[in-house]
Amino acid sequence: MKKWYAVLGDPVSHSKSPAMHEAWFEENGLDASYVPVHVPEGTVGEAVQALKTLGASGWNVTVPHKQAIIPYLDEIDPLAEQMQAVNTVSLLPGGRLRGSNTDGPGFVGSLEQAAGTGLKEKKVLIIGAGGASSGIALALSQAGYRSVSVCNRTVKKAEAVAARTGGEALSLQEAERRLGEFGIVIQTTPVGMSTGSSGLPLGLQNLSPGAVAADIVYSPLETEFLKAAAATGCKTVDGLGMFVFQGALAFERWTGILPDTQKMKDRLMNEMG
Ligand code: ATR
């Protein structure tokens, strides 16, 4: 029987995941398809039941179900457990459902592909302290990054994330003043997103020109943050790589094959103009 996969979310019609995974299935000679499934908030349990009945081999989970799906799974990876968020579900032999989270590891893969080696010794600052920030902070720590600090508008939330990495928690003002200390600065707030508020979460005048600046927002590809960082001479990493890598790691869990991320990034970049 032809295998099939899905992404569950609300909204989901805009998702680039179906086209991305179908291209990878074709590239790797696999006879499988991937469909978007619109699942309103509060109905993810019914959706899981339906997908099981209809024989899906795995699926991605996006907003607003990453936490809500957990009770419907049989097992969960340690990273997803720590984050209380699942973005990938795999059907194991025997019919058990396993949840994992490839968002944070996807960010790390994308950073390393775009910015090279020798990154682990650099001091990292993450701007923002929501779900994306905490996944990235944990994944960086697990990948061996030595020092991961967090700054946020609400400092208490930065403290909660930094407690997981052993790094410092800073206010946005402190971070702005001390920005030159950091070799990697990662923007995880919705500031700069085409649907969010414009501008910068903090001023970049003290950014070190040798730093790497990464944004997880990819619509638009060139955020104000990345433009301002590039203007100071920094190396920049856009958010599209994280999206592609989280998908690639999900694909690997389902098929055992790590697909070509660079080719996919180039293709999506062309499509986005
Ligand atoms: P996600 O789960 O996608 O990371 P989230 O949990 O809503 O999203 O987190 C958004 C983060 O962006 C939060 O850290 C938020 O700061 P607060 O904790 O103070 O709310 C931050 N954020 C949102 N809008 C912001 C703004 N205009 N300026 C600075 N930080 C902002």
TrEMBL record:
Catalytic center residues: 66 (proton acceptor)
Recorded catalytic activity of this chain's protein: shikimate + NADP(+) = 3-dehydroshikimate + NADPH + H(+)
Alphabetized InterPro entries for the sequence: Aminoacid_DH-like_N_sf, NAD(P)-bd_dom_sf, SDH_C, Shikimate_DH, Shikimate_DH-bd_N, Shikimate_DH_fam, Shikm_DH/Glu-tRNA_Rdtase
One Pfam family cited in the UniProt record for this chain: Shikimate_DH
Pathway(s): Metabolic intermediate biosynthesis; chorismate biosynthesis; chorismate from D-erythrose 4-phosphate and phosphoenolpyruvate: step 4/7
Domain called Quinate/shikimate 5-dehydrogenase/glutamyl-tRNA reductase: residue spans: 117-189
Top-level division of the source organism's lineage: Bacteria
Enzyme Commission code(s) on record: 1.1.1.25
Any one Gene Ontology molecular-function term assigned to this protein's record: shikimate 3-dehydrogenase (NADP+) activity
Binding locations of NADP(+): 128-132, 152-157, 216, 239
Domain SDH C-terminal residues, every copy: 239-269
Record keywords, A-Z: Amino-acid biosynthesis, Aromatic amino acid biosynthesis, NADP, Oxidoreductase
Family membership noted in the UniProt record: Belongs to the shikimate dehydrogenase family.
Subunit structure: Homodimer.
Database matches in HAMAP family: Shikimate_DH_AroE
NCBIfam families: aroE (TIGR00507), PRK00258.3-3 (NF001319)
Task of the protein: Involved in the biosynthesis of the chorismate, which leads to the biosynthesis of aromatic amino acids. Catalyzes the reversible NADPH linked reduction of 3-dehydroshikimate (DHSA) to yield shikimate (SA).
Protein known as: Shikimate dehydrogenase (NADP(+))
Originating gene: aroE
